[in-house]
Amino acid sequence: MRHLNVFNHLYIFYSFVFLLNVIHVFWSHPVLYSIIGILGIIMMMINFPRSDRVFKILGGILLAAGTFFFLSSDVSAGSIPSFFAGNIGLLFLLSMLPWMNSVVKAGRYNKLLQSLLGGNVKDMGSLYVRSEVTMVSLAAFLNLSSATISQDLLKTQLNKVKTKVKNNFIVMSTLRGYSLALLWSPLEILLATSIFITGANYLEVLPWMLLIALLGFLVDAGIGKMLFRKHDVGNLASEAENREVNKKKLMQFIIALVLFLFVVVFLANVVQFDFLFAVTIAIFPFALTWAVLMKRKKSFLKIGWPAWKRQTNHLNNFVVLLLSLSFLTETLNASPYLQILQDPIVALEGHPLLIMLFIQAAFLGMTVLGVHPLATMGIFGGVSELLMGALPTVTLTVLLASSAIATVPSAPYGLIVTITSVGLRMNPYEIVLKNLPYSLLCGFLGILVALLTLEIY
């Protein structure tokens, strides 16, 4: 019983680590960063035995690969703790997500979203299109929270559908819709990083990214509608609520999401916080304020407190994956093998189409192997002058951003895939195989649009 109680109070230890991470944002000191890394290693030791078998295997592979890269580098052993600190901020974000979901439930907006996802749909094919549209709308504002909200609603709504069909539906509609929103959202870190590398103007890039998103939606929605049209949705719980009440509630929801966007943009662009940190620290105060204005504070805390503790206590799979991935990424950047990955770019100079195809293949291949798209973006950032000599700035930005974001639904260790994997109890690589055709399609659309910009710029 005592053993069980310790795990029920892990949220206290994790909160302390997250607090140190917040302090590090304001007081960046290498000793503090190493302490956070040491605590990260302790988190790994606690959670490795508790994680699911597939995550133990994947985490072990990442740690083994990271060890290989470390041994090939000239970095001292004293740097190892800091290699485990890089993704603590992502764990902090994951810990805070239940608060946003809780205010949605406290305000009973989940029922409104259910009406948006359901309503008068003939079959699962029609629901697929509606689900993707809803995800595109929500993900632009709520980011990762949109995935948990939409997936929870769809799991409930499709509870009478066969598990395999239901899981395939959720995996495809939510992850693909999520990535379509990231293509144009100014809040997306991959898009922001590509603009930072090239120095492009966001307003020049935006129309082309919207074109990729529109083409991607039209093609994937058509495919999804055909694949699932033969499956019946079942009896949807469609309450005959007053249409005016629904419209009013929908308007309140949209206003709240726009205000949250403004808060995050203010923190990221004016206060100059890192994007992920800005989202993380904005979630609770914004959700609490929203609950107070709705006069749902008591309900919000009643739902949110146990949900937050439960989520934080059960970060075991995320801890194993994200911290081992942090170790791999840091050791790869310190390894001489990084240069080997950059050499092919030099060899393809003067062949724009081949460069585009190589960049897309590199992003997809590295992502499937477990390297975060941001790390791959960093590799291309190292040869950015060479790339900008071969391609116009807008073309290169569109190419980097679309190639990176196309891999999001197929990244076995990415946050959105990991969240979905845990929620649906699926192997991450099952999700990868389902979404790999979409990632290839989205990547090729990015290349086509990049070729179009090549003619203009």
How would you describe what is shown here?
The chain crosses the membrane at residues 6-23, 30-48, 54-71, 83-100, 175-199, 205-228, 249-269, 275-294, 315-333, 353-374, 386-416, 436-454. Keywords: Membrane, Transmembrane, Transmembrane helix. The chain has helices at 2-8, 10-26, 30-47, 53-72, 80-83, 88-106, 109-117, 124-142, 144-157, 163-182, 189-198, 202-228, 243-270, 275-293, 297-313, 316-334, 337-347, 352-368, 373-381, 384-390, 393-406, 415-424, 428-456. The longest helix is centred in the C-terminal third of the chain and has 29 residues, at 428-456. It has 457 residues and is mainly α. It has a domain at 108-301.
List strands and helices in order, with pairings.
Elements: H1 2-8, H2 10-26, H3 30-47, H4 53-72, H5 80-83, H6 88-106, H7 109-117, H8 124-142, H9 144-157, H10 163-182, H11 189-198, H12 202-228, H13 243-270, H14 275-293, H15 297-313, H16 316-334, H17 337-347, H18 352-368, H19 373-381, H20 384-390, H21 393-406, H22 415-424, H23 428-456
Helix pairs in contact: 2-3, 2-6, 3-16, 4-16, 6-9, 6-14, 6-15, 7-9, 8-9, 8-10, 8-12, 9-10, 9-22, 10-12, 10-23, 11-19, 11-21, 12-21, 12-23, 13-14, 14-15, 18-19, 18-21, 18-23, 21-23
Low-confidence stretches: 237-242
* Mean pLDDT, all residues: 84
Helix percentage? over 70%
Give the N-terminus to C-terminus distance in angstroms.
Answer: 67 Å
Order of helices and strands: HHHHHHHHHHHHHHHHHHHHHHH
Query: Strand-residue fraction?
Result: under 5%
How many helices? The count is: 23
List how many beta strands DSSP finds: 0
Write down the Rg: 22 Å
Overall spatial form = globular
Let me know the largest β-sheet: none
